[in-house]
Design a protein that fits this description.
The protein is 39% helix and 12% strand. It has a six-stranded mixed β-sheet with strand order 1-5-6-4-3-2, with helices on both faces. Strands 7-8 form a two-stranded antiparallel ribbon. A two-stranded antiparallel sheet has the order 9-10. A hairpin with a 2-residue loop joins strand 2 and strand 3.
């Protein structure tokens, strides 16, 4: 059976998941207003991918706009000052923390509370606030490329069940800290690829549900805020306490080896279709249980060809032999599940086309994956 991606799209499936309105005072143009203005001016069409810009460029534009407007009112703050005045509780629905609060929350950033390293400049910790809420605290050494500022300015205003929510922010002396919702059940990468695996993922229905969750989160970023994530990968997909998958990792990294859009190497530009490629790799991981990169570089001075899950899976899927590469830990799919997995597989190989123009939009991907989930669920009725 051959599947063709739907030409129609669920363009605005956002109703109750849309950003909540925020009251802003009339002291001057608020930073949040400037961000909204920058987003609107840069996106003539909600689906115009060629006009989508990165977090950094949007926020930089908003900072300049906010600074200029305050200068018109008789002050001349620097962009950093403009941001600082804008992140008063008056403009965004997130908390401004002190270092002492976060020291207490993490037991002085103890090693036992360390979650993960997000790169050379980022370390993450689990913390518990004084009100008992668990949070993840990202410790940033520098504001490289407006890293923390753009996250705080934009993500404190974005609310979606499939995005990890930003709780607050701290900038005090040499500390740069971002506070997020704590995702109790870890990352998809570990559940798929740790030696023991995870029993939670031992159902095809659950795996397709994860795919739907992730695709809806990315669609929200693209279609509501015209934001390109830039680093979609299984370690940036986290599970909350109810095992809902949420997209995280908004850190300006332009992809990770094995997930990077091939066009980026030639054009040095990321687009919405770069996120689509990364999602395609994640879908292949979900189907096969294999890592994005299967073989690395060299061993004992003998060059070993690098092989990816794309190289491994795509030819087999195109040959109509998907069942040969499905993750054996889940067990053979029944008739309906097999049809659903085939739809996911064909969606995945469209996503990893070498050329961005040949990849589907996120809206079409969501339609296909939701259809696959409905087919799978029909076998459990």
């Amino acid at each position: 059976m051959t599947y063709v991606l739907s030409a129609s799209a669920k363009a605005n499936k956002m109703d109750t998941e849309m950003v909540e309105s925020i009251d802003v005072t009339d002291d001057a143009r608020s930073f949040s207003w400037a961000v909204d203005s920058a987003i609107r001016s840069e996106t003539g069409s909600i689906f115009g991918e060629s006009r989508v810009r990165s977090f950094a460029s949007l926020v930089d534009s908003a900072i300049r706009s906010s600074s200029a407007s305050e200068a018109d009112l008789g002050s001349s703050p620097s962009p950093v000052h403009a941001f600082a005045s804008a992140v008063d509780i008056r403009t965004v629905a997130a908390r401004l923390f002190t270092v002492s609060e976060l020291n207490v929350a993490t037991n002085n950033f103890s090693f036992d509370n360390k979650i993960d390293a997000g790169g050379l400049d980022v370390v993450e910790y689990r913390g518990e606030l004084i009100d008992g809420h668990e949070v993840a605290i990202k410790r940033v050494k520098t504001w490289l490329n407006l890293f923390g500022k753009s996250e705080f300015a934009l993500f404190s205003r974005l609310h979606h069940k499939n995005l990890v929510g930003l709780v607050g922010f701290c900038e005090q002396k040499d500390e740069r800290l971002l506070v997020y919702e704590y995702m109790k059940n870890g990352a998809l990468y570990h559940h798929l690829h740790d030696k023991k695996g995870s029993s939670v993922l031992n159902s095809w229905k659950m795996r397709i549900k994860i795919a739907v969750d992730v695709s809806e989160g990315i669609q929200y970023l693209h279609n509501y805020a015209s934001i390109i994530h830039r680093n979609i990968k299984s370690s940036n997909i986290l599970f909350d306490a109810t095992w809902t998958a949420r997209v995280s990792g908004f850190d300006f990294a332009v992809g990770t080896f094995g997930y990077v859009d091939p066009e980026y190497f030639h054009l040095n530009v990321v687009t919405e279709k770069s996120d689509v490629y990364g999602l395609g790799v994640v879908l292949l991981e979900i189907l096969t249980g294999r890592r994005a990169v299967l073989k690395y570089g060299a061993k004992d001075y003998v060059c070993t060809p690098i092989k990816s899950v794309v190289d491994f899976a795509v030819p087999v899927i195109l040959a109509g032999e998907l069942e040969k590469i499905l993750d054996p830990r889940v067990g053979p799919p029944d008739e309906n599940e097999a049809e659903a997995m085939e739809l996911v597989a064909y969606t995945a190989i469209h996503c990893v086309n070498l050329k961005g123009k040949d990849r589907p939009t996120m809206a079409d991907i969501v339609v296909n994956l939701e259809r696959a989930l409905a087919i799978c669920e029909s076998s459990h009725i």
